[in-house]
């Protein structure tokens, strides 16, 4: 198998075509977002966490892939460099922690609700 040299736009896979098609009906939907917040006890090296998560994104093109239209055909566009903004929230108040059935850890419901409902739109990273 030969590596592609022109990666500016590639055809969608069948799974990507499905996601693109569904997005046309519910543009801006957050249906595929799975929100979850984890409580971390003890000290946390925030710089190391950010570096590790950004390294995962750097290594996996699927995490940097967006959809665009080329004429009337949807294509995938792989962003060469993407740095995540990783918001952090200190939850010193135990009342903020509520169990969540979709997450193995307590979910910070008030803090994550707005973020989890923001659409993860396939046409923008």
From TrEMBL:
Give the lineage.
Bacteria, Pseudomonadati, Pseudomonadota, Betaproteobacteria, Nitrosomonadales
Superkingdom is Bacteria
The name under which this protein is listed is Condensation domain-containing protein
Q: InterPro entries, from UniProt?
A: CAT-like_dom_sf, Condensation_dom
What are the Condensation domain coordinates in residue numbering?
9-97
SUPFAM superfamilies on file: CoA-dependent acyltransferases
- Note down the stretches annotated as region Disordered: 96-125
